[in-house]
Amino acid sequence: MKHYVKMVWPYVIWAALIIVLPLLLIILYSVTKNGNELVNIQFTLENFKRMTEPVYMAVFIKSFELGILSVVICLILGYLLAYFIAGFQEKVQNLLILLVTIPMWINTLLRTYAWISLLSDNGLINSFLEMIGLQPLNMMYTDFAVLIGLVSDLLPFMVIPIHTSLCKIDQSLIEASMDLGANRFQTFWRVTFKLSIPGVLNGVIMTFLLSISTFVIPKLLGGGQYTLIGNLIENQFISIGDWNFGSAISVILAIIILVSITLMKRIDKDEIEEE
Hints:
Elements: H1 2-30, H2 46-49, H3 54-86, H4 90-101, H5 108-119, H6 124-131, H7 143-167, H8 171-179, H9 184-195, H10 197-213, H11 216-221, H12 229-240, H13 243-274
C-alpha cells in the first residue's frame, strides 16, 4: 500500500501546481481590488457586482444564445452521424470515428482561418456562386459564420460520446422491441434513444461549455464585434490588465460549468432510476 502511495504523490503535487494553485489564485483575485500584485490587497465583492451592468449581461446573454444554438445543431448532426456510424462493423466504425476526430488534430486557429478563406467576400464559396451566375453572399462577421465555426469545431465532442453510448446498447433489446410489435421509430425512441441519453448528456455538456468559453472563433469569424464570455475574459487579462474582474468572470464561468454538470448528471440519474 505504501508503494502505491509513493507512486501517487508526484501526480498529486503536479495536479496541485497546475490546477489547484491557479484556481486558488483566480478566486483570490476575484475578491480583491489591488490589481495583479498580491501585496496590500483589499477584499471586495465589487468585481462580481460589475457583472450586473447591462454591457456585461449582454455578453452572457449572447454567449448563451450562440451556445444553445450550437448545441442544438451539433446534437442533430452529431446524433445522425453517430447513429450512422454505429450501424457499421467495428473495424469500419473505428475508421469513421478516426475521420471524425482527425480535424481535432489540427490547431483551432488554422481551422478558423480555413473557414475565413471559405466564407469571406472573395472566398471560395462566393467565387463559386459568381461563377455560376448567382449573387455573392455576405457571410463573414455574422451569427452564421460564428455558428459554422463553432459547430465544425465542436461536432466531434458530440459525436464521440453518443457513439460510445450507442455501441453499448444490447442489440437483443432492440430485437425484443421489434418482436413485440414496435415499429422502427417506436424502437428508436423508446429503446435506442433512451439508452443513449448518457452519451447525449455528456455531449451536450461538453459542447455547451466549450462554445460559451471559446474566444478564437468569435474573434476571427465575428470580426471583433462578437464578444462572448471567453473574449471578455481574454480582454480583461491581456488587453485591459484588469486581472481582478477577469478572475471574477472566470469564477462565474466555473460556477456555471459546475451547475450545468450537476444538473445534467441529475437528469441522467433520474433517467436511470425510471428505467
